[in-house]
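Section 5.1 Outputs to date
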Amino acid sequence: MSLNGWEETTNKLCLEPQSPHTPIVPTRCIFVLAGGLQPNGQVHHFVKDRLDKAIEIYRAHPCYIVCMGGGTYHKPPALNSKGYVIHESTACAQYLCQQKIPAQHIYREWASYDTIANGYYAFCNFIKPLQLTSLTVISSEFHLPRVRLIFDFFNRLFDQGAHIDYIDSINQHLASDVLTVRAEREAASCLQFKELTTRISSLEIFVHWFHTEHKAYKSIVDYQLDSSKIANSY
């Protein structure tokens, strides 16, 4: 999707701040999905591409940017010099601040460890409480089809009726063989999620499934550690 389409629907929705400390009425938010960290704790270059899309939109029409993601269960978390976990959303927020986005206009979420949780916590923590009727979701081209499935699903499940614009960043900064595997995994995950949605017709059913069957959130966690270079793309 082009940014022009976003601009046409946001001119009257995001209030331009008078200063970095002036609150913005959160009638619209940009949700950027994190995508793993490098060994040094910084975001991958393909994630910077996602964040750069958000920055471009923000500079044209300031609003809150929500960084989504705590980590992944495909590999152990990155730690800072004091031994604390570096959440992916923290690294994303740091990158935004380095690009002169005011910290007061950045939200972080660090409970989600996969795309399903991204969508669920986006609605639980922000979209529903703030009663957002219009929002933008940004991820990479290879990832966006599943993102769309999941966010559209929760839009119905929460009965939110929000208008969602989906914007992708082009597939780059991933080795071709890694990108191929990631794309294949995404296609398979799309099919799995479509099957899942045929069995979930309410939030009550979803919450039960989420906390009893989801590999990252059930009581006995099923870590999917991967020593291959594919894991380095998470």
